[in-house]
Structures are given as C-alpha cells and as structure tokens.
Amino acid sequence: MIPPRPESAVSSSVRSAAVGTAGVAQAFKRALVSQCHPNMLFAILLPFLIALLGALLLLWLFWTPLTDWLDMQASQWQFINDADAWLVGIGLFSLKLYLVPVIAVVILLPVSGILGLAIAAIFVMPLVLRHVSAREYAGVSRQGRNATAYSVWNAIWVSCVFAAGWLLTLPFWLIPPVGVVLSVFWWAFAFSRMMRVDAIVEHASPQERRILLERHNLGFWTIGLICALLNLLPPAWIILPVYAGLVNAHYGLEALRRLRNERVIEA
Q: Which keywords describe this protein according to UniProt (predicted)?
C-alpha cells in the first residue's frame, strides 16, 4: 500500500471529522430504529435491573452510616446551623431534616447508575454489536484484539474517575446551577468514555482505534453530552444504557467503515 501524501492525510482527517460530527444525528436515528427491535428491548432489562438492585443494596448497606456521618458533618457547618435555626424559629421546617437525606441520595444513586452503565458496556455491548453489525455493517470485519480485557479495564477506570469526580465536586451542589452543570459534565464523561471504546474495540485494530478516537473525539463527546442531558429525565434512565450503546455502535462502526474505504481509495 502506498502511504498517503501529507496534504492528502490532513485533508482526509478534516473531511472525516466534519462528516463524523454530522453523523451524530444519523447515529441517533439509526439507534432509535435498532432500539425498537425485540432483542434490544429485552437487552434493556439487564442494566436496569442491575442498577435497581445496586441502588437497593447501597441504600440497605450504607444509608444509616452515611446519613449519620452527613448529620455529624452538617452540625459543623455554621451556615447550615444558622439557616436551620432561622427556619425552625419562624415555624417552617428543619433544614437538616431534609438536606441530609437529599445529599445521601445524590451520593448513592449515581453510584448505582454508573454500575448499570458499566454492566451495559461489558455485557450488553457485545449483544448490541452483534445486532447492528449483522444488519447494517456486515462488510466491516472484526480485527480487534483483547476486546473483553480492554472493555473491562476501560469500564473500571471510567467508573473510578466518575465516582471520585462526583464525590469531590459535591460541595459545589450548594450552588444550584453549578450542581446541574457538574451533573451533566460527569455523565457526559461517563457516556462518552465508557461507550466509545466498546463501540469499536471488537472491529477496529489497535491502530484504527487510535485514529478513530482521535479523529472523532468531538463526535463521541457530543453523543455523551446529549445522553447526559437526556439523563436529567428520570424515565430515560431505563433505556439510556442500551440506547447510548446503540448510538455509539452506529457512530463508531460507520466511522470505521469510512476509514477503511478512505484507505482503499488512497491506495
């Protein structure tokens, strides 16, 4: 194969990035069609049940110690004490009575959510890839190596960074707009970094994977941001782990198909 000229490589990269960004809308449309298939509707159950069981287990194990610790911490916050005393003094309600359970929920529920997303990435994504590749990307051969190990490692580090970042930024939730922005950011990070790798790891070679993740970084982040905004709507929690996987699969496999066609033309 003749290596492409430098100017040809640059123009191809720019053109592919532009097409990739425009392909986000196409990926969402294709994913919506794929989601309506019975197999994909059934696949929704696994991450949803894992997230639900995880939430119940976390509440059962950590609710009392967490709320006791938060109550002790809240007693040391002078602002909270002053506000609580003022509200009780005018006969309204105790701020601590409601603040501590809300903070506990804000801590525990995202942990169960990221667990469901990780389960979807590791166990459901292979089902998603088999479904979409057999129907729309049959010509895209599988050239990935160590896909399972790479997927598991990616799910672990993304989950750890998400959990650490979520906990470290909890104090900013006292400023309401900042709390919403941080929620969107961390879930955009989770949806983007978790699913982009699993979408292409089975089909793309290591070299192709590096090219795709670099060239279509903006597109994958756009998908993550849209999914994070949808995540603000509680009913979407049921389908988002699988639907986000479908969107990333369509986007990633289409980008891989274009990359291989581009190399054939250059040759």
A: Membrane, Transmembrane, Transmembrane helix
Give SS3 for 232. coil
The more confident residue out of 137 and 237 is 137
H, E, C per residue of 61-98: HHHHHHHHHHHHHHCCCHHHHHHHHHHHHCCCCCHHHH
Asked if residues 83 and 205 have their Cβ atoms less than 8 Å apart, the reply is no
8 A C-beta contact, residue 259 and residue 265: no
Local structure of 32: helix, strand or coil: helix
Percentage, residues of the chain above pLDDT 70? 81
Number of H helices, E strands in the chain: 11, 0
CA distances from 25 to 20, 53, 182 (A): 10, 33, 25
CA distances, 211 to each of 8, 12, 106, 161, 242 (Å) = 15, 12, 37, 24, 25
Taken in order 186, 227, 209, 111, the sign of the CA dihedral is: positive
Q: What is the pLDDT of residue 192?
A: 93
The mean pLDDT of the chain is: 81
Mean pLDDT across 183-193: 94
Alpha carbon separation from 66 to 63, 84, 141, 204, 228 (Å, rounded): 5, 20, 49, 44, 27
Structure token digits, residue 55: 């939430």
